[in-house]
Specification:
The protein is α/β, with parallel strands linked by helices and 224 residues long. The chain is 50% helix and 17% strand.
Length: 224
């Protein structure tokens, strides 16, 4: 049986536009289960254990901003954590696709839902043969945004008949953490384009040029 896993994470708030955070981004990591990532998962687990990280979940945004579980970690350690996850994502036989909604151009939540629905349906239509080549499509999501979950239900079930949904705990799946990392990088790309990177983001990556050259350029080679 051919099975493809789709790990979904999102960045941004669903509500009205906040000038500090005007984007809503949904990112899928696509993984053909025929391509084992067991060895890579073992490597990143060991690497993070060596760094004496207490949490099993790498949450990229707070890691960069030195928030939550990373409040007491210095810059060197946080960069090492980021690099381990980034290396895992690059080495894995996965692809990804992000869908972006600029909330500055919408008037209410229905417009946001319509914008994302159109993007998702277009993506599925363009790649219908690919998804239909699998016996099963398993969509992993933590259902952090109920509105996005409803959009997924209406779009995927409308187009595909072989979809299963599984509620995911971020700590249990490195590929869900990969989706979180990719969401964050796509957001940073938008912020860099608009010269809106924060001081903490610039400090973490050393410069906008380093962010673009070392991280965004190579990771975008994995776009679906």
């Amino acid at each position: 049986m051919r099975v493809i896993s789709l790990f979904l994470d999102e960045s941004g708030d669903w509500g009205q536009c906040n000038p500090r955070s005007p984007y809503f981004i949904a990112t899928f990591v696509l993984h053909d289960q025929a391509d084992s990532i067991k060895e890579l998962v073992g490597k990143i687990d060991s690497a993070l254990t060596d760094l004496q990280i207490k949490t099993k979940t790498v949450h990229t945004g707070p890691l960069i901003r030195r928030e939550e579980d990373y409040l007491n970690l210095d810059m060197i350690t946080r960069r090492q954590i980021f690099q381990r996850l980034f290396t895992f994502v690059r080495a894995s036989k996965t692809t990804y696709q992000s869908f972006v909604a600029d909330k500055r151009h919408i008037t209410d939540e229905r417009d946001l839902a319509d914008m994302l629905t159109k993007q998702l349906l277009s993506f599925l239509a363009e790649n219908l043969a690919y998804f239909q080549s699998f016996d099963k499509v398993i969509l992993y999501y933590d259902f952090g945004q109920p509105e996005l979950a409803r959009i997924l239900d209406s779009t995927y079930k409308k187009v595909l008949s072989n979809v299963e949904y599984r509620r995911v705990a971020p700590a249990n799946y490195r590929l869900f953490q990969a989706a979180d990392l990719l969401c964050t990088l796509e957001l940073l790309a938008l912020k860099a384009e608009n010269k809106a990177l924060s001081r903490s983001e610039l400090a973490f990556f050393r410069s906008e040029r380093e962010l673009l050259r070392t991280y965004l350029k190579p990771i975008r080679q994995k776009r679906f």
